[in-house]
Amino acid sequence: FRWSEEERRWGPIYAMWRLMRSRAAVESQYLGTRIAIALEQYQRAQGGFPDTLAALVPAYLPVIPEDPLSGGQFVYRSEAGAFVLYSAGESGVDRGANARGNLLLTPLGD
Fold first, then answer.
1. How far does CA 15 lie from the centroid of its chain?
2. Which of 17-31, 41-55, 79-93 reaches the highest mean pLDDT?
């Protein structure tokens, strides 16, 4: 196997970019999971999910974390006794919960 001149030149930079992107995705999953747990706690205490994530502060979360993957806020909606929570992904553009590149977090099972 031989690396091309371009691959030798950009290989380390590309590897570092992939590592940083991977770390942001893992961190987004972790922070999103913390929000999902707080949403479940809220639902059990209040009988339903909040209209906004701000209702979780300060009783369930000290602050609403920023999404490291998108650099913005996690996208949240309460729908018919359930919730949708996801990251808009690296682009930061909300293309819906099931769009490619979005990190979708779903409610916990009973």
1. 23
2. 41-55
The pLDDT value given to residue 6: 67
Kindly report the number of other CB atoms within 10 A of residue 71's CB atom.
11
Q: Which residues contact 77 (CB under 8 A, 6 or more apart)?
A: 83, 84
pTM over 0.85: no
Helix residue spans in the chain (DSSP H): 5-46
Q: Which residues contact 72 (CB under 8 A, 6 or more apart)?
A: 66, 88, 92
Helix, strand, coil in percent for the chain, rounding step 5: 40, 15, 45
Q: How confident is the model at residue 70 (pLDDT cuts 50, 70, 90)?
A: confident
Which residues contact residue 87 at a Cβ distance below 8 angstroms, ignoring those fewer than 6 apart? 28, 32, 67, 69, 70, 74, 75, 102, 103
